[in-house]
What we know:
The structure is a homodimer. By secondary structure, chain A is an alpha+beta fold. Helix content of chain A is about 45%, strand content about 15%. Chain A has helices at about 5-20, 25-40, 50-55, 85-105, 120-130, 180-190, 210-215, 225-240, 245-250, 275-290, 305-315, 325-335; strands at about 1-5, 70-75, 75-80, 105-115, 135-140, 145, 150-155, 160-165, 170-175, 200, 205, 260-265, 320. In chain A, the strands form four sheets. Chain A has a seven-stranded mixed beta sheet with strand order 2-3-4-12-5-8-9, with helices on both faces. The first copy, chain A, has a two-stranded antiparallel ribbon with strand order 1-13. In chain A, helix 6 crosses helix 7 (about 210-215). The interface between A and B is large, with 80 and 80 residues.
Amino acid sequence: MQISLEQMHSTLLKLFLNYGFADAKATLLARTFSESTLDGVNSHGINRVPLFIKYIREGIINIDAEAQLAGAFGLMERWDGHGGPGIVNATKCTTRALELAKNHGIGLVALRNTNHWMRAGSYGWQAAEAGCMAIMFTNTTPNMPAWGGKESRLGNNPLVIAIPRDGGHVVLDMAMSQYAFGKLNEYKLAGKKLPFAGGWDQHDQLTRDPEQIISTMRGLPIGFWKGSALSMVLDMLAAVLSAGESTSSIADKQMETGVSQVFICIDNARFGDGSIRESVLRDIIEYTHRSTPIAPGMRTYYPGEKTRITRQKNLKEGMMVDDGIWEKVTALAGD
Amino acid sequence: MQISLEQMHSTLLKLFLNYGFADAKATLLARTFSESTLDGVNSHGINRVPLFIKYIREGIINIDAEAQLAGAFGLMERWDGHGGPGIVNATKCTTRALELAKNHGIGLVALRNTNHWMRAGSYGWQAAEAGCMAIMFTNTTPNMPAWGGKESRLGNNPLVIAIPRDGGHVVLDMAMSQYAFGKLNEYKLAGKKLPFAGGWDQHDQLTRDPEQIISTMRGLPIGFWKGSALSMVLDMLAAVLSAGESTSSIADKQMETGVSQVFICIDNARFGDGSIRESVLRDIIEYTHRSTPIAPGMRTYYPGEKTRITRQKNLKEGMMVDDGIWEKVTALAGD
């Protein structure tokens, strides 16, 4: 069904208030879940709300927890999320990294003891809107084997890189797995094979069968050994900088919680050459856009471009939301 | 043939002095090319020396150029490499980023107008030896299509992430292409197909045939659309932060030059918890090492682990160097 941004926002606001969130937090959560859905990321927007509520009911997410400063050295800070809602903690840490960047040129905030931040890109868009570049990442529960090994020992550890641009921000939002588990589910429901291998089957063979991968929970890192290595170092950076948990200890928990995240913001406007930035970015984008399509109907995009197209379409036409999901959400909201 | 570190260093030192380099620069070049070879990266060590000399002869590399400060805002600096040797410029900028990190917690140096830095990992090892984490990257000439496009429009833009560790530094050194062109050449010479698709053939199909990829010069990004996007944003960050050239303008040159690079160093010892760092890293490494091998003879490694094994072996046994390459190098050295 088609839902407008306003409708979703007001339903979610009611829902979060019902669940006891303070006004400001309920508003932030309603806005973030709605905007992720507006941008077409239903998997970490509206579709995820019932699971988020389950986490609250099971006492894994503490709705009143406030992230607090746990250590500081100038432009580097370490925060403790105290098991609060991931969106609230991550937004606060992004805001703080932006403040540090505005003061020092760069700001780094490392956050421990937090929960899933939902759509990684949300914080990249937040930074870009504030005129800063950003490099951000989180660790997760294990869902991919390290290259050469059999059991899942690495998280898919989403990485965000954002670059502000007058003509539309560049925002990369990329997990280290070839396919998100949400995407595997879509292929499974459609009865389709993946275009490329996406994980391991029960006989330790790479497979394009989404059902097999969902059952083994052994996703394939992008670029095989390369994404495996990149995923591992992101976990290391996050756990060391925050003095928090790594995928190795998150693995011991029944449900994913206590993750570690890093928010680096760079105020490149400090160099005072916004016009150079715009022309450099335009050159790169035009150069790639000028490619001959490799197959009919294909074209190149810069990271964030499809999001922008989807956002504009959804603002006009409303957001496509699964009927069953919307029914669950409205029931939770008491509508 | 087998060459000792001392023998290679003294031959290269003679060579670089012959070509007119000042003492300190000749020593740095000899050391860096030798150490890359010691670590098993012959492709960007000894094998690359003849091409480096060709660049000097053609006047693309200016042996006397000194990188100079072109702009500064506290811990963020912009340097101009003035077309000097890539190793000399990159080492200088790493040293400067480390100084800034020691003073401020983080240091960022963006370098423009430089040349190929040879082995990317060299600067990650330099940072780790100095006790700092590092995130570094460079852009390059185009050698991969952007996802959806036909012509090569992206560089393979190597990325380095380093994390110091008492038990052996973690150093990721990773280009955005599934296979380096040096690796494709090895497979071609051995008459073998690649284990996985590595690029596009002349009919715009993905192929495991190294010869086809070398002839089209259209490599495959890691993770298909994902590595394509990551490569593009690294180019954007490098060109914007340095106010330097992007892959789109480097493409116009006969030979690759004028590249842009970024050196970010983080002095995480600032938080004063070295023992936490060691135990976190040990946990992650042990957790992945404990994986059951997915196939006989396989095991997991942390990034930098194989380098360390190779280094220790080569220190004991000498480095394996291609006879033809060594003949060329000794001829250039006038031996």
